[in-house]
Amino acid sequence: MECGIGDDGLLPPSDLPGTSAQQVDIPSAQQTRTRVGRKLTRMAKLTLRNSDKVKVLFDSRRCMPIGPNKAITDNWSSYLGFLGRKEPNILICSWKKVPATTKELIWQGILEQFTVFLCEGDKEVELSENDVKLQSRFKKKWMAYVGSRWTVFKTNLTTDYIYGPKKDPPYVSDYKFLDKVTWDAFVALRLTPEEKAKRKKAQEVQSHNKCPQRTSRGVYELLEKKMMEEKIKERQEASQDPSELIPPPSPPTRHERWKRARISSSGQYITPEVGLIAERIDSLEEQQSSGSFKSSGTNDLLTVAIGKPDHPNRVRGVGRGYTVSTYFGKQRQPSGMVSREEFNSTREEFNNTVAEMERKLQLLLSSQAFSCSDQPISPAVESGKGSNLSAALNPVDCDKHDESSDEYELYVEDPHRRLVAYGLVHDLASTIHHMKLKHDEVRVTVVRVVVGDVEVPFPIEEVTKVVEAPKNFIVWPRKLVEKVSRKVWKLKHELSPWEHKNEETIA
After folding, report:
1. What ranges does the record give for the region Disordered, renumbered to this chain (predicted)?
2. Which residues are 455's β-sheet partners?
3. Is the separation of the CB atoms in 187 and 158 below 8 Å?
4. CB 321 within 8 A of CB 59
5. Separation CA 82–CA 146 (nearest Å)
6. Can you give the pLDDT at residue 158?
C-alpha cells in the first residue's frame, strides 16, 4: 500500500478518514443506548494546507511535549498515532520490516506540520538538521512511538473485527483508508497457526500482569493534574476566609499516583493484588511518618511495597519518557558498596596473592614430589645384548607412587641408550605445558645433570638441553626412566648378567 503523503510532505485532506461535524447524524433516543467509541479523527486544524506550522515545546531530557498548552501536545500525539495507523501496510509483520522510505515520508510529514523546540530551563532551541546527534535521538524516540501505535492498531483490528463483536469490515465505516483486498489478506494472515500461537503467547504474558492501570488518554500527566485540582479544592473548602490566598499544594507522590491509576470508577481497586500493595503502601506511610522507615533513591516507598525494582528504561507511576536515571538522578552508592577503583585495586591484590601462592606450591611440589612405588626386579633378558638388562631392571610405573623423594635415572637414546641425568617423577596432573600426557610419558624435574649438552626427548621453549632442565617440569619417555636403589645400583655396577641370574636362582 503506497503512502498518501504528497510531494510537499502533507497528507491531502481527501485521504483523511472521518467526517465533518455537518455530516454527523444525530442519533435517536433508542440509538443512544449503544455506546459509540472514539473513532479515527480528522484533526482539521492540522490538515489545512497553509504555511503555518504548529509550535510544540519539548523537554530536552525526556523529549516529551510540554506545551505551550495541552491541546497542542494532544494534537502532536494524535497526529503521530494517525500516521502510524494509516501509512504503513498492515500486512508487514513487524515495524522493523517497514521500508525505510515509508518511515522517512512519515517523519517528513511530521516536520511539515510541526516546529519542534527543545527547552532547557528558560531557553528554547529549535530542532535543526545541523544538530545530527540531537535530531537522531529525537527522531528515534518518536518514530518508535509511531511504530507502537501501528502495532496497537493491528492488535485492535484483530481483537475487534476478527475475534470481536464487530461484524462489518473496518474499511466500510471506521477506517476507510483500508481496502477489501488488504483486509482479506490481513484476516487470512491473522488466522494462520503461527499468528494464533503468537496471540495465545501474548495473552499468557498479559495474564501475569496483576496490576494493570486504568487511566485516560492523558495517562499520569492528566491524572496528576486532576489530583492537584482536587487538593486545591479541598484546601479552599477547608478555608474559612474565601478571600484567603491558598498556597499551591505539593504534587502527588509516585505511590499516590500509582494507587490512583488502579482504582475503578466504583472506587475499588481493580484487582486483589493491587489492594494488597495499597495496604503495604499505607503501612509504609505510617512507618515513614514515625521515622521507622526511610526511603533512599530508587528504593522508595513504592518499590519496597511492590517488592521489585523499576526497569532501567521505565519508571512506574510517572508516565512515558522517564528512565531511572532521568527520574531519580545519578544514585549514590549505598553503604557497603565499593567504588570501581577500589574493586579493581582489590582484584589486582587478590590476583597477586594467588600467583604468589601458586609459585610457592610449585616449589613445594618440586622439593617434595610424589614418587613412583617400588617394583620387583625383573629377570634379566638372555638375548646376548647388554642393553636389554638395563631396560628390564625397573621401568618406572607412575600409576603407583609414595611420598618419598626417590631419584630416577633419566636416559636418552641417541642412538645408544645412556644416562644423562637424575630426576624426580611427579604424578600431579594429566597435562603439562597445555598438552595431555600420553600413557608412555611422565612428568619429571632434573636434580642432577650427568651429560648436559644432550637434547632432551621433548624440547620446549625454555628447555632444549639437559643442562637447562633443572627447576623445570619436562616430559620424559616412561621407558627411559628407571628408579635408583642400592640393589639396582649393585646389579648394574657389580654383577654380570649371569651373576644376576644366579643370585635370583639362589634367592
Report:
1. 1-33, 231-264
2. 465
3. no
4. yes
5. 9
6. 94
Rounded CA separation 251/228 (Å) = 7
DSSP string, 41-73: ---HHHHS-SSPPEEEEEETTT--EEES-HHHH
SS3 410: strand
Inter-helix orientation angle 193-207/180-190, to 10°: 70
* DSSP letter, residue 22: G
User: Nine-digit cell at 299?
Assistant: 528504593
Residue 11: closest CA among 79, 88, 104, 77: 79
Q: What pLDDT does residue 334 have?
A: 54
d(Cα 321, Cα 77) in Å, to the nearest integer?
13
Distance in angstroms (rounded) separating the CA atoms of residues 333 and 172: 59
226 neighbors 192 (Cβ within 8 angstroms): no
Which of helix, strand or coil describes residue 263? Answer: strand
Contacts of 3 (CB under 8 A, 6+ apart): 87, 102, 105, 106
Whole-number Å distance between alpha carbons of 151 and 169: 19
Give the closest residue to 277 by CA, choosing from 351, 212, 340, 186: 212
DSSP class of 452:
T
**Residues 104-140: b if buried by 16+ CB within 10 A, e if exposed:** ebbbebbeebbebbbeeeeeeeebeeeeeeebeebbe
pLDDT at 367: 60
| pLDDT of 154 | 95
Residues of the chain where predicted confidence (pLDDT) is lower than 70: 1-51, 129-130, 331-339, 366-405, 485-507
Cell numbers at residue 403, please? 611420598
